[in-house]
Amino acid sequence: MPTPPPEPPPVGHGGSGQPGDPAGPERPDAPGPGRPDPPNGYAVPARLWQTLDRRRPPGADAVADAWRSPVRGPWLTAVLGAVLLATLPLLMVTGLLDWIAYGPRLDQAFPRDVGWLRPPVFDWPTRPAWLFRLTQGLHVTLGIVLVPVVLAKLWSVVPKLFTWPPARSAAQVLERLSLLLLVGGILFETATGLLNVQYAYLFGFDFYTAHWYGAWVFTAALVTHVTIKLPRLVTALRGPGFTGTPVARTRPEPADPDGLVPRRPGPATMSRRGVLALTGSGAALLAVLTVGQSLDGPLRRTALLLPRGRQPGEGPNGFPVNRTAAAAGIDAEQTGDGWRLTLRAAGRTIELDRRALLAMAQHTARLPIACVEGWSTTQTWTGVRLRDLAALAGVPAPDTARVRSLERAGLFNQAALTAGQVLDGDSLLALRVNAVDLSPDHGWPARIVVPALPGVHCTKWVREITFEEADGG
Q1: Is the pTM here over 0.70, yes or no?
Q2: Confidence at 12, pLDDT banded by 50, 70, 90
Q3: pLDDT band at 16, cuts 50/70/90?
Q4: For the chain, which domains are there?
Q5: What local confidence, expressed as pLDDT, does residue 356 receive?
Q6: Which residues, other chains included, contact 387 with Cβ-Cβ below 8 Å and sequence gap of 6+?
Q7: Is 135 within 8 Å of 371 (Cβ atoms)?
Q8: Could you tell me the CA-to-CA distances from 322 to 97, 319, 437, 460 in Å, in that order?
Q9: Disordered: where is this region (predicted)?
Q10: Considering only CA atoms, which of 174, 255, 178, 245 is closest in space to residue 218?
């Protein structure tokens, strides 16, 4: 086996002259590795930065020197940064696609009014039928799996949060501001996203609005930070690798301009390979405990982190449900023999009871339902095609259809469907699932099921459908 390259010698020297010896105090503002000699180390206005450097907060150097791990440095930070740089764009793109899937053209995406931040939108397609299941499942799963990587990256750069002065030039001010927004943004998005998945709304604001604007702040900070730091990342990755070095031979990297290498490194307790292995193992464990929510079969039982991602019961109706009939305020009287489906179109009104719907041509399709919290499931649905109901109402080619539920309150007690969603051959007013009647929790007596449609728009306990023509008829 080839011998791994030796690691560079340690940088800080204490009073004994031994690497990492903290005995001899070193003036924090003295010239040394990674610390330029004033005033050449300051940009305009140099006097401001010098004044800040001289007026150091009490304990600033003690706190900065408390971070002594010799594995910190440009290489480890660059490796973790490269992982995030490869995965975070996917997280942002899937989040944006999920917002588009909610139908901003029909004024039902949240938040609704996004002003100049509104991206180009399109009508969400119905094919492939698993499209929303993929985008939303990937968004939630990837967001959870990346938590250990984010924490490791923050750990690798945490000493920089205590450097003084905070900046030595206007360019560094911009860098530190982008770093503040980057760290704050990713922690905010991660924390609120995890709470939403767990249905723990501990915050006193609307999740959708906060998550949307938080994502844009984070995106702007990420683009700025990458623009500034990409050359350093590439240089660090092109340098000697350290993954093959055992703990006994782990040494700090040479001092770097960013101050990532500790000034007084201590003895190594873990190699860089160990840090990456620990981070990767944590991410893999979270993947195992999460990915089952987006898959049917035995793996669903491994989704221990998801409150509604596992199998909730047995029988044909034994699959996850986001909102029960009791939670929605639906009682047996509303869904009993007196229930009627009302169809409206072009001034016409038709009422159908469940028996009349069952007498119409029935269609069966195996389709997934995917929830915004990340879980999804594929079941076999049977009912009346929406396009047949549109034709019955006298609008064979509707521009939109607006569906209303028996549920009187809540954000999703109604939904709007595009022409493509209404006319798809597998779009159903479902009356049965897996060859049995729908249960009350799954939408009895009738619910909407459309390929690739977000689960919250697959309206349950349907009471009315209005088909609208392009001219508003």
Answers
A1: yes
A2: very low
A3: very low
A4: 46-291 (no CATH), 325-468 (3.90.420.10)
A5: 97
A6: 396, 422, 423, 424, 425, 427
A7: no
A8: 21, 10, 19, 11
A9: 1-44, 244-266
A10: 178
